[in-house]
Amino acid sequence: MYDCKKCPGFCCSYPLIALDKRDVERLARHHGMEFEEARRAFTREAHGRKYAMKRKRDRHFGAICRFFDTVKRRCTIYQARPAVCRSFPGKGRCGYYDFLSFERRAQNDPEWVAVTTNR
Predict the structure, then answer these.
(1) Considering only 18-27, 29-38, 41-50, 106-115, which range has the smallest mean pLDDT?
(2) Contact (CB, 8 A) for 96 and 8
(3) Is the dihedral of CA 82, 21, 50, 39 positive or negative?
(4) Rounded Cα–Cα distance for residues 8 and 112 (Å)
(5) Contact 32, 77 (CB under 8 A)
(6) Structural domain boundaries of the chain?
(7) Higher pLDDT residue, 48 or 117?
(8) 3-class SS shares of the chain: helix, strand, coil, % to 5
(9) Paired residues of 57 in beta bridges
């Protein structure tokens, strides 16, 4: 099995974190905001989607979900996270976690994270 708490946030660095209206409503409730205020603050139109999560700079991946804590390497809105995040990785294993576990064993370093330099 995988443990998201030991991952640097591979899935949170996707160029598109697609949201639907219910995700934006959930974020609005979580932050005590009206829907339109949350839509403007947290989403953008991208890749043909009406609602996509805004991103911010990240030293490992170049850009990452705006709600990802880049120091602690974890989600800051876990209870209100979007449906796509709730369903990841689906049934079975997380390939990113398998890769990371392999690299940490190979590097003999339980904290090792690949740093991306060309994004």
Answers:
(1) 106-115
(2) no
(3) negative
(4) 9
(5) no
(6) 12-88
(7) 48
(8) 40, 20, 45
(9) 63
